[in-house]
Design brief:
- 74% of the residues lie in helices and 0% in strands.
- It is mostly helical.
- α2 packs parallel to α9, α2 packs across α11 and α7 crosses α11.
Length: 236
């Protein structure tokens, strides 16, 4: 886990900041059917309440960019194993993130038209950061195998290290979620896995772990192209 310790900051290039969201959208569109099934499974775990936090970890594991190919994708048995393993421990993340999030939501609802309404944008930004820490912690636990406490601690460090990027990506995700909520069907079909895939890409990027581009030609294809070019320009 040495690579987990080294968290990279991020420059202020718009392309770099939005890269996790773009890659999350690409993964979602390329794997629409399995991502939809995973989203429905997550909604089911949410309805059962007690399985909601562990089901969220299973969702993040399913949306791991390094294992979304058909032969590497998380199986149903593996997802259930994650739910059983973290059925209770995942509640630590849920409570650590959920309690401050609920306090901030209550403050925003109670004081949005009061004398301290000027604090509402600040509380809103804090809410996005708290949710960002929760998402990053889920990724660190589900994808990178950190213990719950380490995932929360390093999630907070990573979120602060990438503060502008986390805020921008979180705002854009909430806009997409709001649109999907109005349309209903996208919210049910693929928004949960889109969020998980985007956060996973952000964490991989922050840890400096390179993910192969699925659209890039393979080594075998590059060799074939080279041979084809050589044959094209050969004499006789």
């Amino acid at each position: 886990m040495a690579s987990i310790i080294r968290i990279r900051g991020v420059g202020y290039s718009g392309v770099i900041m939005l890269r996790p969201l773009g890659r999350g959208l690409r993964d979602t569109l390329d794997n629409l059917l399995p991502f939809t099934l995973a989203s429905f499974a997550w909604w089911l775990s949410l309805l059962l309440i007690v399985t909601a936090p562990a089901g969220t970890l299973a969702l993040f594991a399913f949306a791991d960019p390094k294992s979304i190919d058909d032969h590497l994708r998380l199986t149903r048995q593996e997802a259930l194993a994650i739910v059983r393993r973290d059925l209770l421990r995942a509640w630590v993340i849920a409570l650590a993130i959920g309690v401050p999030a609920l306090v901030l939501i209550n403050n925003i609802a109670a004081y949005h038209d009061g004398d301290v309404r000027w604090l509402v944008p600040f509380w809103g930004a804090l809410l996005l950061l708290v949710l960002g820490v929760g998402g990053v912690a889920c990724s660190l636990r589900a994808v990178h195998g950190l213990a719950i406490g380490d995932a929360l601690r390093r999630g907070a460090v990573l979120t602060l290290a990438r503060l502008p990027q986390v805020l921008i990506v979180a705002i854009l995700l909430w806009i997409i979620i709001a649109i999907g909520g109005i349309l209903v069907v996208p919210a049910l079909m693929f928004l949960p896995t889109l969020v998980a895939a985007t956060v996973n890409h952000l964490v991989y990027d922050a840890l400096g772990i390179t993910i192969a581009n699925p659209l890039a030609p393979t080594v075998e294809r590059q060799a074939e192209d080279q041979r084809a070019k050589g044959g094209k320009y050969s004499v006789g």
